[in-house]
Amino acid sequence: MNKAFDGPTGTALNLAWHNEFAGLGEPFYTRLAPTPLPSAYWVARSDKVARLLGLEPAWADSDASLQALTGNRFIDGTDPLASVYSGHQFGVWAGQLGDGRAILLGETGAGLEVQLKGSGATPYSRMGDGRAVLRSSIREFLASEAMYGLGIPTSRALCITGSDAPVRRETVETAAVVTRVAPSFIRFGHFEHFSSREQYDDLRTLADYVIRRYYPACASSEKFAGNPYANLLEAVSERTAVMVAAWQAVGFCHGVMNTDNMSILGLTIDYGPFQFLDGFDPAHICNHSDNQGRYAYNKQPNVAYWNLFCLGQALLPLIGEQELAIAALESYKAVFPAQLEDRMRSKLGLLEARDEDRQLIDATLRLLASEQVDYTIFWRRLSRYVADGATPAAAVPVRDLFIDRAAFDAWLLQYSQRIEAQDAAAAGLSMLATNPKFILRNHLGEEAIQRAKLKDFSGVHTLLRLLDNPFDEHAGFEAQAGFPPDWARSIEISCSS
Ligand code: AMP
Ligand code: MG
Fold it and tell me: Domain residues of the chain, as ranges?
């Protein structure tokens, strides 16, 4: 280890560890240990992720777990490291970045990598302190689990531990560590790193590793026969298309779609200034630091393609011919619209596809955008309307969302005609399982954060429970499913985390 660990070591968590990423060798990472934090305490834990990892129930009561996941205790069998990557940030080549505050402990028997985020400085911290604040850690933890609950590809989060150690951002806040989990945290930026340095042997080692472990079909796929790297680019393009279509359908804005925040597995990762839309404003910019609106909600699909293009460029030395790379990227252009249309069709409860559906989907989104109607509440009320038999009386709560009633009535006529011949009960049930009642709205996160700063973590726990099953009714929690308060508009979420 390059950085010696000055704390206790031993067993914790009782997991079987290995670290295949470490087998890639020195150019890919620096071995080092987390930096301890004083006065560790639990903030929140996910039982679901604990089960996924195969943790025994006692893990949550164990001080050894708490200390280990705060970076205060070295876990025997782990091989902690920080990996190096580069990337394009806001459309500009940023050069070397890397895990500046995340440390990979290793991989568990379940084939999942476990990272501590906020666990101290690494050789890739640049000007940063290697820490994460409680505020952003709560947002990442809840967002990971909320996205999973919504069925959207994402990294997961096992827990947050907190510390009273001060961390300087715009104001002085306190430190926290998120334990996050994914099959791999490899990013587009890992490939860009080795390609930009013309380290093509390392680039090939990385690509072969990713293919062997995560995309085995690419080794022998007939699409680009004999070119596993073109196959890989195509497969990543498809997975990215699936992910972004899911974002658009649920109204999720990532906020910082830099190439170093793009997972090679098509998972949503690196939750920072993200936001779930309140009112439907297609041009919404959730990141207060994004002055140009590069990552506005409606720009996400094109940005994802731009990022894939960077990945294609990085893989070009392995793929060989530019035409093949371009052809591999084409899959994004085919898969994204098809996926989005499927998802929107489900949101509308259209049980079978028809050619004219595209028109109805566009009309619906135009209607929502014209008054910036609350995106989640609209879909949930529409689901209820259909489930209740699509009668005129059942339409009242949906109609109430609109000021221009004539515009709504015209749309409803078109919609009703389309669903007339369907089994309303079946369509309604499917809509209620597609259109969530609960999303992680900025103001809900903010309220939980304010209480957590006073060491009351119950708001975080309640949100976790609701967001774990966002399609359930959760009687008694209507406030969390309601409209955002006026002050929600004044919340400014920036890259500061
Ligand atoms: P992000 O866009 O937040 O995912 O981070 C971009 C880069 O900055 C990554 O290399 C991060 O590891 C690094 N970074 C962000 N915040 C910090 C911090 N507080 N200390 C060290 N590195 C950081
Ligand atoms: Mg990042």
Answer: 21-182, 188-346, 350-432
Distances (CA, A) of 234 to 182, 201, 231: 21, 21, 5
Site to substitute for ligand 1 among 90, 99, 101, most atoms within 8 A of C-beta: 101
126: alpha, beta or left? (left if phi > 0; alpha if psi -120 to 50): left
Contact of 140 with 156, CB cutoff 8 Å: no
**Which residues lie closer than 8 Å to 54 by C-beta, 6 or more apart?**
15, 108, 109, 110
Is ligand 1 within 6 A of the CB of residue 130? yes
* 238, containing H or E segment: helix 228-250
Written as one letter, the residue type at 449 is I
d(CA 334, CA 389): 35
Q: Which of 79, 99, 202, 260 is catalytic?
A: 260
- Cα gap 55→388, rounded to integer Å: 43
Q: Which of 134, 260, 295 best tests ligand 1's pocket when mutated (most atoms within 8 Å of CB)?
A: 260
How far does CA 365 lie from the centroid of its chain? 23
88 pocket-lining for ligand 1 (C-beta < 6 Å): no
- The reply to whether ligand 1 has any atom less than 6 angstroms from the CB of 100 is yes
Question: Which residues make Cβ contacts (< 8 Å) with residue 277, sequence separation at least 6?
Answer: 251, 252, 253, 284, 297, 375, 376
Instruction: Establish whether residue 168 lines the binding site of ligand 1, counting it when its CB lies within 6 angstroms of any ligand atom.
Output: no
User: What confidence tens digit (pLDDT) does each residue in 168-200 have?
Assistant: 999 999 999 999 999 999 999 999 999 999 999
Model pLDDT for residues 264-306, shown as the tens digit of each residue: 999 999 999 999 999 999 999 999 999 999 999 999 999 999 9
Q: Which two tokens stand for residue 370?
A: 């014209």
Task: Determine contact, residues 264/307, Cβ cutoff 8 Å.
Answer: no
- Strand-pair category, 41-45 with 132-133: unpaired
pTM over 0.85: yes
Give dist(CA 232, CA 219) in Å, integer: 8
Q: What is the DSSP letter of 120?
A: -
Ligand 1 pocket check for 120: Cβ under 6 Å? no
State the distance from the centre of ligand 2 to the C-alpha of 446, rounded, in angstroms: 22
